[in-house]
């Protein structure tokens, strides 16, 4: 029986298929083939047992029992019931079934599992005279059903509960968000720790938490099979299970244990309660004597790595730092990055560093580019396994002189970031001189000047209560598919670090906005623009408070508004309304669909001495969809002397009967509708920042409207590089 060739499948966390395949080959298993979500292989019953006992990366070992037709529920039921279940299920064993995958007729995994369970139980009732008991939580015999197209693969779960449950953790007594044992083992195998351990190397985790990485490293160093502590296996309810063969596999594993390895494993943490849990876990795992546990800040790792032992042997720093999601918050990430950078500086040359982190800014903080990156998941969080070589040649830094003349050395992941630093400083000096003369305290100081650094940098200088404060927003531009995503992420992180140093901005004043994803932080700051006061909310989805590219449009509105009824469409900031009101508008109305923006609008009006808000008849904020509002105003005869329409790039559909609104396709119809709001002699100011839309001037002129291109006159000085995207037109209705 032990010589029978079985088809098997080892499941693992996404991203670790290649690591698992290497591990199974080292176990001398045959026909190993990595696939999505796991590795297929073949072997005898003894091989299957050894995979269960020794695999450190697999989460489950499955044995293929059959492949059956699954065109619909009845076909699947009949095919499963026809299988010889009395030859597979040990009499008296409890059973359970789970399923994954869908097809046209089987669209619910719970229903699929139920049909397979019914077929299994009905077949056993025919053989045994009674249906087996079902135990969904802890069965003796568990089937896994994988549905693909019109076929279903029926697996026997040999391992039972997930293999990450080694048995050394005590339920309910762990740190928050502990790393799974299989993921910890996978990162150590990917970094080559077993080879280092054989040479008497050292492993250190200075942020060990409950100690998972260090314990998995110690298990490898002492040649302890990860399955030795498990008390229950999925094959125990299998009729073909050979207890004497399994006992031999266990005995072989026990004889390989080496209690006093040459390798050294260090685990440290700043939290004494976490270290207490780590010690208990290590004791239950049987590796406490092979570890050295210390309480200290990771930044002070150097004091624990003194001596020739660490300098002469290969070494690995492996850790799972907080991500700012389940532990701490995003505002803490810069300090975590800096702590890891200090820890890395203490490592001897020739060591390796491996991290599990979704935080791409870590490369910049370390001043290193990882030589290997593996995308994976830690629970629901998409993250990356990043491996670095520790030597001076791989470390990058650039000399930066700030606008205040302070010289600093900034760690960067990309060598070219030094060019970005020089360009940013040169551009900022000239633009700040212009800003001081123009009465502007918030401006764009960099706008994709270098092709490799396709991003913008906006600087905000506080006034009044925020005098002396500075804030900077680094916004990544849309990233073409041809651009290497990881390099772009490193350049963005480098740009943030360089911008802080060049522009003399504190960490709390930095807002990093990647092309996709949320901003790193949100902050508010009181600023001035030509005598007006505003409080922009930096990092908000729509940069509520003050769109800088509309500065020239606001100046135009101020000049034209005197004595007119003014309507402001799609302006979340209300900044143009402030300019119109101060410029002498008879009345104003500001349209927006969000209550949050109404608060900012009222604040802007109040800050500038205008009695505003929804309770004032002269200056009103209407919470409504601007498209619907235009449709309602025109038939009612409401007309305005000056209308501002800042065209959005996209708007959601108002109901299920229409598609989402897009500027390139629908912009002209909106402009035409907005002209219906104009009284005789009235003017519509239209502005946008999007190359996908071109105003049909001829069509407007055919309707008797005068059209004047004001793009050159209203483009802000600091947005000169946006001239191709920016457009502003004034559309006038003749006086009757």
Rg: 33 Å
Gap from first CA to last CA: 101 Å
Number of strands: 33
Biggest pleated sheet: 7 strands, mixed
**How would you write the strand order of the largest sheet?**
2-3-1-4-7-6-5
Number of helices: 21
Average pLDDT number: 92
Low-confidence stretches: none
Supply the helix-strand structural class: alpha/beta
How would you describe the shape?
A: globular
Question: What is the helix content?
Answer: 25-40%
Beta-strand portion reads 25-35%
Overall description:
- The structure is a single chain.
- The protein is globular.
- Helix content is 31%, strand content 25%.
- The chain is of the alpha/beta class.
- The termini are far apart.
- The chain contains 21 helices and 33 strands.
- Helix 2 (45-54) packs across helix 8, helix 3 (73-81) runs parallel beside helix 4 and helix 13 packs across helix 14 (485-502).
- Helix 11 (333-345) links the parallel strand 11 (315-319) and strand 12.
- The strands form 8 sheets. Strands 2-3-1-4-7-6-5 form a 7-stranded mixed β-sheet. It has a 7-stranded mixed β-sheet with strand order 10-9-8-11-12-14-13. It has a 7-stranded mixed β-sheet with strand order 27-26-25-28-31-33-32, with helices on both faces.
- The longest helix is centred in the middle third of the chain and has 22 residues, at 417-438.
């Amino acid at each position: 029986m032990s010589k029978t060739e079985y088809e098997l499948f080892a499941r693992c966390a996404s991203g670790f298929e290649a690591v698992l395949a290497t591990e199974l080959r080292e176990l001398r298993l045959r026909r190993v083939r990595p696939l999505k979500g796991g590795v297929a292989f073949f072997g005898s019953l003894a091989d299957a047992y050894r995979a269960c006992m020794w695999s450190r990366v697999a989460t489950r070992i499955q044995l293929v029992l059959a492949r059956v037709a699954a065109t619909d529920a009845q076909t699947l039921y009949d095919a499963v019931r026809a299988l010889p279940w009395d030859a597979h299920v040990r009499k008296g064993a409890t059973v359970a079934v789970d399923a994954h995958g869908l097809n046209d007729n089987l669209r619910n995994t719970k229903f699929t599992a139920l049909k397979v369970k019914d077929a299994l139980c009905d077949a056993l009732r025919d053989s045994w005279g009674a249906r087996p008991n079902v135990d969904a939580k802890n069965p003796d015999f568990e089937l896994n059903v994988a549905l693909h197209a019109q076929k279903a693969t029926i697996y026997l779960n040999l391992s039972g509960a997930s293999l990450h449950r080694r048995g050394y953790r005590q339920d309910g007594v762990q740190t928050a968000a502990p790393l799974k044992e299989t993921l910890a083992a996978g990162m150590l195998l990917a970094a080559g720790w077993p080879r280092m351990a054989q040479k008497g190397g050292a492993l250190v985790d200075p942020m060990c938490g409950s100690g998972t990485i260090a314990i998995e490293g110690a298990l490898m160093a002492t040649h302890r099979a990860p399955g030795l502590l498990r008390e229950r296996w999925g094959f125990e309810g299998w009729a073909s299970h050979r207890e004497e063969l399994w006992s031999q596999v266990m005995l072989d594993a026990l004889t390989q244990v080496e209690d006093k390895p040459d390798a050294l494993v260090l685990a440290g943490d700043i939290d004494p309660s976490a270290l207490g849990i780590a010690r208990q876990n290590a004791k239950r795992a049987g590796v406490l004597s092979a570890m050295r546990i210390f309480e200290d800040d990771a930044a002070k790792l150097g004091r624990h790595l003194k001596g020739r032992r660490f300098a002469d042997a290969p070494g690995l720093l492996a850790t799972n730092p907080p991500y700012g999601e389940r532990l701490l918050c995003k505002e803490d990430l810069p300090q975590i990055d800096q702590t890891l950078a200090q820890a890395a500086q203490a490592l001897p040359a020739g060591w390796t560093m491996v991290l599990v982190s979704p935080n791409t800014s870590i490369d910049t903080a370390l001043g290193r580019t990882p030589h290997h990156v593996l995308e994976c998941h830690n629970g629901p969080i998409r993250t990356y396994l990043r491996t670095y070589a520790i030597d001076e040649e791989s470390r990058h830094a650039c000399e930066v002189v700030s606008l205040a003349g302070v010289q600093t050395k900034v760690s960067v992941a990309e060598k070219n970031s030094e060019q970005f630093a020089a360009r940013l400083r040169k551009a900022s000096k000239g633009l700040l001189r212009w800003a001081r003369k123009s009465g502007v305290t918030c401006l764009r100081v960099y706008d994709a000047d270098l092709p490799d650094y396709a991003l913008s940098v906006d600087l905000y200088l506080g006034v009044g209560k925020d005098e002396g404060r500075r804030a900077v927003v680094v916004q990544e531009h849309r990233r073409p598919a041809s651009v290497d995503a990881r390099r772009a992420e490193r350049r963005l992180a480098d740009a943030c670090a360089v911008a802080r140093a060049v522009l003399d901005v504190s960490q709390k004043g930095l807002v990093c906005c990647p092309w996709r994803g949320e901003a790193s932080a949100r902050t508010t700051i009181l600023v001035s623009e030509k005598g007006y006061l505003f409080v922009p909310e930096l990092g908000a989805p729509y940069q509520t408070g003050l769109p800088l590219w509309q500065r020239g449009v606001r100046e135009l509105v101020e000049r034209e508004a005197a004595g007119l009824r003014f309507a402001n469409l799609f302006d979340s900031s209300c900044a143009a309304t402030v300019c119109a009101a101060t410029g002498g508008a008879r009345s104003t109305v500001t349209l927006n669909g969000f209550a949050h923006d109404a608060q900012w609008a009222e604040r802007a009006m109040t800050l500038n001495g205008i009695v505003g808000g929804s309770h004032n008849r002269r200056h009103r904020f209407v919470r409504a969809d601007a498209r619907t509002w235009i449709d309602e105003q025109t038939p009612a005869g409401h007309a305005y002397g000056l209308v501002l329409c800042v065209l959005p790039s996209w708007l959601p559909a108002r109901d299920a009967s229409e598609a989402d609104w897009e500027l390139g396709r629908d912009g002209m119809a909106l402009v035409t509708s907005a002209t219906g709001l104009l009284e005789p002699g009235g003017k519509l100011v239209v502005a946008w920042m999007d190359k996908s839309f071109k105003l049909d001037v001829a069509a407007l002129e055919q309707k008797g409207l005068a059209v004047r291109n004001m793009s050159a006159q209203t483009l802000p000085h600091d947005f000169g590089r946006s001239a191709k995207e920016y457009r502003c037109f004034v559309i006038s209705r003749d006086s009757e």
